[in-house]
């Protein structure tokens, strides 16, 4: 089984808006809705699981109200690594053979084509984990901020792991795609996304 794990339980403090980050609207549509729609069109994903937390109660209510084809999983929301460990342990109890695609709820432009490309790459890789990174030049060209960079690349918020709660041998996929760089962390990020919206959704 290939599960898409949509991470929607973070505090989203950098965005500095009154609503929860997954519900922040781009062209009058919540960020999480873009991601859900793109995941649903995947030819490789078997099931979507949305990880929520006490930080995102309104997001949980929204998800329940739209009755989509996904499962909601409650996490602590303490921090990303704590939630990641909990999710891996949760799935490990079910099976150690599943594949988990982790994607953040603030990545509205990641296309189904890119999601399937990443999964196809992973399925051909001999390693248990895959980290998708974007060259730092993409961020600099767009005027996007980033919080971490290593060897000229920035983590995209898209990763693949086996359903085992251990440190996994990791492959790295460098994707020079704007859609992977546009995670909405700040209001300036959202303004850049507004300008580029027509390239992805019109």
By CATH, the architecture is named: Alpha-Beta Complex
> Between the first and last Cα atoms, what is the distance in angstroms?
33 Å
**Mind describing the biggest β-sheet?**
7 strands, mixed
Mean pLDDT: 92
For the record, the count of structural domains works out to: 1
What's the number of helices? 7
Q: List the strand order in the largest sheet.
A: 5-4-1-6-8-7-9
The string of secondary-structure elements, in order, is EEEHEHEHEHEHEEHH
Quick one: CATH superfamily? Spore Coat Polysaccharide Biosynthesis Protein SpsA, Chain A
In the predicted model, the low-confidence regions spanning at least 5 consecutive residues are none
Structural commentary:
The chain has one domain (2-201): Alpha-Beta Complex (Spore Coat Polysaccharide Biosynthesis Protein SpsA, Chain A). It is α/β, with parallel strands linked by helices and 202 residues long. The protein contains 7 helices and 9 strands, in the order βββαβαβαβαβαββαα. The protein is globular and about 40 Å long. The mean pLDDT is 92. The strands form 2 sheets. Strands 5-4-1-6-8-7-9 form a 7-stranded mixed β-sheet, with helices on both faces. Helix content is 37%, strand content 24%.
Which tags fit this structure?
globular, Spore Coat Polysaccharide Biosynthesis Protein SpsA, Chain A, single chain, 9 strands, 202 residues, seven-stranded mixed β-sheet, two-stranded antiparallel sheet, alpha/beta
Give a short summary of the structure.
With 202 residues, this protein is of the alpha/beta class. It has helices spanning 31-40, 57-66, 80-94, 112-124, 136-142, 178-181, 187-201, and strands spanning 2-7, 25-26, 29-30, 47-52, 71-74, 99-104, 129-135, 153-162, 170-174.
């Amino acid at each position: 089984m290939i599960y898409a794990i949509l991470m929607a339980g973070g505090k989203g403090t950098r965005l500095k808006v009154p609503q929860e980050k997954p519900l922040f609207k781009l062209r009058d549509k919540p960020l999480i809705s873009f991601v859900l729609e793109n995941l649903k069109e995947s030819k490789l994903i078997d099931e979507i699981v949305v990880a929520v937390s006490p930080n995102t109660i309104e997001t949980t209510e929204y998800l329940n109200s739209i009755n989509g084809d996904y499962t909601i999983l409650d996490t602590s929301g303490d921090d990303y690594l704590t939630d990641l460990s909990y999710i891996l342990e949760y799935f490990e109890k079910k099976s150690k053979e599943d594949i988990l695609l982790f994607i953040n709820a603030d990545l509205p432009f990641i296309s189904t084509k890119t999601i399937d490309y990443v999964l196809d790459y992973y399925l051909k890789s001999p390693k248990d984990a895959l980290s998708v990174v974007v060259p730092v030049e993409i961020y600099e060209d767009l005027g996007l901020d980033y919080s971490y960079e290593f060897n000229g690349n920035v983590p995209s918020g898209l990763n693949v792991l086996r359903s085992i709660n251990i440190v996994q041998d990791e492959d790295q996929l460098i994707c020079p795609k704007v859609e992977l760089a546009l995670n909405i962390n700040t209001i300036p990020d959202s303004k850049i996304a507004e300008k580029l919206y027509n390239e992805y959704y019109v």
